[in-house]
Amino acid sequence: MTEHFGYDIDKRYLPVLLPFLLRPSQDGVTLTDEGSLIATFGLLRVATPRTNIIDAHITRNYRWWTAAGVRLSRADDGLTFGTNNRAGVCIHFEQKVQSRLRRSGHSALTVTVADLERLVTALGRDDEQPRVPTP
């Protein structure tokens, strides 16, 4: 059964989020019956087979100035779809996923969905050891 996980939106960030054309009632993470993960944030979309996911875990307490909007990581090739500074799920991929922002792809995606625990559990990574990505 397809599951959708909407974003936990801090309304104080709406002025930053709206230029990305965020659609609060539609955007978020969808796990499809066909075995795909699709994350949307306005006009941006990341999609990958769920078999490409090697880890998913909750991260918390982001700096407010890095928490909102679409953002590339300065530390690595990660991507964030952020709507609050409280918490999100960081999803790691075996093979990098592409986006409009980086042709070489992203090895991780952080999403600030409303039901963190349910997404981690649905990805099947709540009690598993992370797999090691293949080089």
Overview of the molecule:
The protein has 135 residues and is mainly β. It has one domain (3-122). 8% of the residues lie in helices and 45% in strands. The chain contains two helices and nine strands. The protein has helices spanning 14-17, 116-122; strands at 3-6, 28-31, 36-41, 44-49, 53-60, 68-72, 79-83, 87-99, 102-111. The protein has a five-stranded mixed β-sheet with strand order 5-8-9-7-6. Strand 8 and strand 9 form a beta hairpin. The radius of gyration is 14 Å and the shape is globular. Residues 126-135 have low confidence and may be disordered.
Q: Give me the number of helical elements.
A: 2
Q: Point out poorly predicted stretches.
A: 126-135
Count up the domains: 1
Specify Rg, calculated over alpha carbons: 14 Å
The end-to-end span amounts to 33 Å
The outline comes out as: globular
Which structural category do the helix and sheet elements fall into? mainly beta
Strand sequence of the main sheet, in spatial order?
A: 5-8-9-7-6
Instruction: Tell me what portion of residues adopts beta-strand conformation.
Output: over 45%
Helix/strand order: EHEEEEEEEEH
How many DSSP-defined strands? Answer: 9
Oligomeric grouping of the chains: single chain
Q: Major β-sheet, in short? A: 5 strands, mixed
Estimated helix fraction: under 10%
Mean pLDDT reading: 90
Q: In short, what is this structure?
A:
With about 140 residues, the protein is mainly β.
Give the helix/strand layout:
Elements: E1 3-6, H1 14-17, E2 28-31, E3 36-41, E4 44-49, E5 53-60, E6 68-72, E7 79-83, E8 87-99, E9 102-111, H2 116-122
Parallel strand pairs: 7-9
Antiparallel strand pairs: 1-2, 2-3, 3-4, 5-8, 6-7, 8-9
